[in-house]
Amino acid sequence: MKQEQKENSRKNSAYEQLQPYLERAMALQTANILFEWDNETLAPRQAGACTARVQGALAAAYQELMTGEEVRGLLEKCEKESGFTEKELAIIREAKEEQRELSCIPPEEYRAFQELVAESTRIWTQARKDQDFEAFAPTLEKIIDYQKRFAGYQAREGQRLYDVMLDHYEKGFSMEKLDEFFALLKAELVPFLHQVTDKGTEIRDDFLEGDYPQEKQRRLAEELAEYVGFDFEKGVLAESAHPFTTNLHNRDVRITTHYKDRMDSSLFSVIHEAGHAVYEQGVADELTQTLVGQGASMGMHESQSRFFENIIGRDEAFWEPIYPKLQRMFPEKLGKISREDFVRAVNKVQPGLIRTEADELTYSLHVLVRYELEKMLIEENLSVKELPKLWADKYEEYLGVRPRNAAEGVLQDIHWAQGSFGYFPSYALGSAFAAQMAAFMKQSLDFGELLRKGEPGVIREVLRRHIHQYGKLRDSRRLLKDMTGEDFKPQYYVDYLKEKYGKLYHIEGCEQRNA
Amino acid sequence: MKQEQKENSRKNSAYEQLQPYLERAMALQTANILFEWDNETLAPRQAGACTARVQGALAAAYQELMTGEEVRGLLEKCEKESGFTEKELAIIREAKEEQRELSCIPPEEYRAFQELVAESTRIWTQARKDQDFEAFAPTLEKIIDYQKRFAGYQAREGQRLYDVMLDHYEKGFSMEKLDEFFALLKAELVPFLHQVTDKGTEIRDDFLEGDYPQEKQRRLAEELAEYVGFDFEKGVLAESAHPFTTNLHNRDVRITTHYKDRMDSSLFSVIHEAGHAVYEQGVADELTQTLVGQGASMGMHESQSRFFENIIGRDEAFWEPIYPKLQRMFPEKLGKISREDFVRAVNKVQPGLIRTEADELTYSLHVLVRYELEKMLIEENLSVKELPKLWADKYEEYLGVRPRNAAEGVLQDIHWAQGSFGYFPSYALGSAFAAQMAAFMKQSLDFGELLRKGEPGVIREVLRRHIHQYGKLRDSRRLLKDMTGEDFKPQYYVDYLKEKYGKLYHIEGCEQRNA
Fold first, then answer.
1. What is the pLDDT of residue A88?
2. Domains along chain B?
3. Which end of chain A is more exposed for a tag (fewer CB within 10 A), N or C?
4. How far is A502 from A41, CA to CA, in rounded Å?
């Protein structure tokens, strides 16, 4: 009887009454996620404007719901209730956070922005194709204006605009912390990169280019995704201009790739996106379709994709059981290339222009460029029209290369077109998280042996147990600390890179170190 | 000044205030349409239950919006306003109709039904694959229960349940009218079919089966769709178990097909779906994304798809300019088959078990079976478990064939799994509408000459002018009358079939007739 009473009172609690609202809000968001997926992978060319109206209306409905009196009132009542589980507390926390952020933005502005974004990715796609920054600049300006205005609405007292944006993607990593992080990378990696390039070691990688038929690359992509743990019963692999991962819920996680001239480009992008997807597929059933049913943060997400792509996927041991299959698939290209030479080639350091094709060592310097430019755009009123030149100058300074056109320069990434400012730093953070996790895991697991035996699943399960299952219950710093026993420590990342590339390029004084 | 005042008063009119609500309602529906498309063409196997929850939540939001106080109040206020255009009046009419229908249904029931439907198509797919009617029967029973209950809620005084359902798909065609229509078809076509089959004329069609590589069929499907007027800038062609057309708006209309053993199966299903799609792509821009932005009715839709598939697509003149291309694509299969023999083969009368693969003559008899069974299920409480036997008996009586299993019998169509009762009759009505339109158009256009010259577009434009552009502004009887000058007259359909097949099978007394 008592139990029943308790359950009844529970049923009428503000928290329970809140659930149908949150479920509807999730449904509206999920619908817009499906539209985004569809826009990038399938929708016909002329659909743009009409579909943007649909997306705008859905986003407005979402905003109205989350900021409406009912949700607001119920959230306030939740404050007076107690006995919540960790999941319930986290859902309330996220709902309040979302409500606060959305409440600040006038609905018409929010809606206009959503429509702008739906259109702008199309404009960006065309501009990139045409190598025409001017065609995208006015749209980008509008997007920045909105982003700054929104951040202004959302800022807590004294909070700087770019910190507001950073907070959307990674709690606990403001400019203050990131300045430190990037300063370390700049101080350690720029000179180290010089050491590597000065050394002049020739690594052959010409065989990665050329005659790799798309149909075979497609089959290989599917097999590799499955090998590292992507579950095709709960996911889809498709093609789009820029690889990405999206998830409707833990039973429907979708990745894309793009088959290019260099076979390693799609190869590692598939392993990378599969890393994101394995994370989402691994979120606990009881969390999916709630406000805490996705990965913890962008940085944590990127840690998983880079863990799969680099720490596992570029390890020679990973290729031991599967490289013979590649040789059989592409006998004319790889038949006479040894596994050792293949692995050296896919780890070759080559300062380049395209972030998504960067090697592990130069990767975070691409992010550094974007971090500095975003800070200038948001905090120092840098004008959009100055972007191409500044972009080129910074690439020259850090990486020693200079883009010939906007497509291989400032137009290469979709993020700004989507209004995602403050997102890029999480790529570098992710790599650093991954390195810290790997250093911890290697204390008790022999990665080399597991990979040689063809058992990447054992490593994946450790990540699932410590990270994936928790979704957004806990933030990235907490997850990292719970797993490794230490707060975020970027030195692991620098050490990992120096050890790996020191070995590959025979740089003295790097090989034996490990934090 | 006066003009400005008028515009201002217009801006504050109930009608204008209603628009944002309707736009949001359309967006919710469009989202669910995208989910349905995605479920049928792409979604991973295990996504089902979670995605059904999303779809249920979106449908509930739609129902709440359309039946909410705001929309109700504004629609009432519209009654007192005047000076509406035809478009505005039609939108108000549709909104009121929709509101009335939805208001009758308790929200929880509506939502539970939407979730059931999202799941049931998946159960049906599996059951059909397993040839296992029992696996689907309990779900079908639930669906029928809901449909009857909903029709009961919606019925106007004295209206019979099946008439309520018929009304959803085709206004102006109740059981009384359909009994007459189907009686004519039964009286004329069943004996005529006997004449044809008794004649024993052998038409060779073995060459349509066999080695037609899917990749080539896919290319051919694309080219044919484009040839008859499908605009790939505003549409997509994909694959699914059962071909269908869906539209998000007039700039995004999607068709599917299925590549089977018989090449003519996908060939004509593509022309058929392209007919539906050309209709939707032809709806006026000012109507799309409103409540009158789709085709007028199911029957009118089917008239366009069957016009394209049969009246144009199975005409020998249609193949004159393009058959040589088919021969070049499939030299081993068609190289030595004359165009005349090809056209005879694709018009061969062969009473069969599968509706979607039926020839033109037997097609409406497949529909007749379904019409009679639906009437019994809804009006006479026929039990679901009796369906397979009754289905088989009727096929034997009208068509002389008997299914060996449920997959080629009662499980062949998706409609009941989707809760679409009252839909099937519109297939036969559509064929009859098309025949009436063709008889009218042939008075002033030489179809044969246009098709021989490779100009199906001229015929398409006449249909666009008389039918497509109007969307749902006017109902099918009105459109038919405006175009042909006559009310619906099914004798045109009977005459068309008898003339065409009388000629093909040399049946005396049929060749010269035309109403």
1. 97
2. 2-132 (no CATH), 175-504 (1.10.1370.30)
3. N
4. 40
